[in-house]
Write the structure tokens for this entry.
Amino acid sequence: MLVNLKEILKYAEDNKCAVGMFNATGFDSLQAIIKAAEKLNQPVILAHAEVHNVYNDISLVAPVMLSLAKNCKVPVCVHLDHGTTLEMIKRAINLGFTSIMIDASSLPFEENIKFTKQVVDMCHPKNISVEGEIGQLITSEDGVSNKTKSKEYYYTKPNEAKEFVEKTNVDALAIAFGTAHGFYKEKPVLDVNVIKEVKKVVNVPLVMHGGSGLSKEQFQDCIKAGIRKINYYSYMSKAGYEAAKKLIESNKTSYLHDVEFEAMKAMEKNVEEAIKIFSMKD
Ligand SMILES: [Zn+2]
């Protein structure tokens, strides 16, 4: 069943859990995500990241994503992850996506508000949800151990979060409190108090980016503090990669479809484990 982000995050809020957002980069990951969600009977957010558009153009994947979502027995939101350009955002809207995440947090605060509000005004009349972001995510490229900038530089400030949500009318807010995209070079240190403080002053669900690589306890601490959407990708992809590598090295097959199928099964298992933790059922 196809739903928007606002609807799916209401489920998370009602159940005091988080819904996983998983990036799909091909047919194998799309199937892995849907199968895992159906098996566990949990809602899921199926995402296409703008940065992955080089692998599959959004016009090719959108009909497949939407068809999978509509035919799925659990609620599925079809989401654009890290939309940076109006061109890509407009394409996602016109193709039928039910949710858009705007990546404009690197812009000055007022410009982030202006850009996000512009997208909200385009999306809400079409019943499409919008996720905004404030605070700087410490990306792996920036280096988790980058000591040249203080925590205050990166982390979301509660007063700014409040102003941002009020002025933009977003449906969900991604915040920064120590997570990073990609693979962690060292054990991440999260400031769960940032989540708690933002939650006190903001009335929309909060989102964690860079969800791969945290411990079960870290995930659950974040959910208890108020995180309702967790973006997860790198370790799902790694699970597929490692299963494919193992099969190739075994010399048991020369067919690519065998490798793809093996990768799909491994990703499905990895997504299942993540959904169990996010839904607080593990
Ligand atoms: Zn992200």
Notes: The CA atoms of residues 26 and 214 lie 25 Å apart. The chain has one domain: 2-278.
